[in-house]
Amino acid sequence: MAKLHSGIPGRQAALLNATGASRTAFTQSMEHLIKIGLLERNPGHGHPLRPEFRLTPVGQAAAVIAHKILDVSEDDEQDLLRRSWTLPVLATLQRPSQFSEIKRSLLTISDRALSQSLRRMEDRKWVHRRVENEVRPPMPLYYAINTGAMIRNVTSDLTFG
Q1: Domain of 24, in residue numbers
Q2: pTM of the shown model
Q3: Distance from C-alpha of 119 to C-alpha of 87, rounded to nearest angstrom
Q4: Could you tell me which PROSITE patterns the record lists for this protein (predicted)?
């Protein structure tokens, strides 16, 4: 969506090249974005096997946010942004949070997916895990830092369920 917002033509080949996604992942993503109303096929343009896409009015607003997220992140960080739970987890970290608080905010995430997502972001220095030893039992808290904090600020008005 950010690529469409930045002026890349809505043709499948141009978008595939710009995103670096595989054909299968690209097709699944585009179908999902159409299903939730952020994209539509451009009627009268493209070929059935090579469609052309355009943003819907709601998609244009979402694309502005997606473009801001790309602006605050580096090119080598795009793979982490493409992970399923990175943005929803960062959006929930508006304040230091425990694992259980993050999980409660994201109703459909599994413990394993949340744990892996937090670990990946911790490895990239997007999230910091600090254990509060003053309380019993010790309580780990997660904070968005560096690029993670910048993305969290961009996504502060979004809700994920």
Answers
A1: 2-72
A2: 0.74
A3: 14
A4: HTH_HXLR
